[in-house]
């Protein structure tokens, strides 16, 4: 069997965590701790497939006022009832999306050792989950976290100049879509229509290029990306047609059916707190695929770390906090227990 030099040593690290988990599980059983469910696998073998609400953004440009209002209402309803939705006619060309995926695939095909040591954009390359202490905290994936403030710095990109050119066009387009949607959602809550624009821009937001290599383990056994919520205001996701994204809906996992003509939008923790739970930041995950690699690109609309998050109506469900404080608490939780707790820590 040939070893792909571009792939990180995911299997080696997963097996080490699995052995550790099994030992701890065995120890718990020996102590008759029948309530310990820490080591159970969370991927359900049978999951219903869903089609997310699909919203045609061309309705926002309609000459018909009723159609504009209906489009806005559909966005707000989806954010409230689902926390996830899809948008089409979003203004980002098919050619740009195709170019971005091609550049992304070329980047991930670089040998693993080079990805680790190349220093592109100050070493944003991540793989697996370095803080995992058990097998069910491990993600079968690799990613580049790209701060958008570095796009203009040509020296940081090394040989990846064509990737820089693609991102230089792609990132502003994603910012435009994300701020449009976030502004509509904010205005629905009673905020000024420029509130989001003042809080979030390219200097505070970032992108993540994701690659989920095919996994020799059963998809019921391992996560491509562990269950989580996003810590931003809003996330825009461009994914391929392999599938694997699942979200929590009505207390059960449902699989999202890929749509080649749409971008996926999901509400982040900050918007849930800001809206006093009017909008929902929904837990989601990616399941590993045994046969096919999966690629996606996520754009995270974030404010500066000093931005104060406070509910738009009183009484607020959450205490006042800054984005920086929220990020710090998440990092501390991950270090101590292997996963984020998120908004429940800030409930009043």
How is this fold's topology laid out?
Elements: H1 10-30, E1 48-50, E2 54-56, H2 65-81, E3 84-88, H3 94-108, H4 112-117, E4 125-127, E5 142-147, H5 161-189, H6 195-199, E6 206-212, E7 223-228, E8 234-239, E9 245-249, E10 252-256, E11 263-267, H7 269-274, E12 284-287, E13 294-301, E14 308-309, E15 321-322, H8 323-337
Helix pairs in contact: 2-5, 3-5
Report the principal-axis shape. Answer: globular
Strand content: 15-25%
SS summary, helix count? 8
| Proportion of helical residues | 25-40%
Strand element count? 15
Radius of gyration: 20 Å
Overall average residue pLDDT: 89
Query: Could you say which structural class the secondary elements and strand pairing correspond to?
Result: alpha+beta
Q: Mind explaining what this structure looks like?
A:
The chain is α+β, with helices and mostly antiparallel strands. Helices cover 33% and strands 20% of the residues. The protein contains 8 helices and 15 strands. Strands 2-3-11-8-13-6-5-4 form an 8-stranded mixed sheet. A 5-stranded mixed sheet has the order 1-10-9-12-7, with no helix packed on it. A hairpin with a 2-residue loop joins strand 9 (245-249) and strand 10 (252-256).
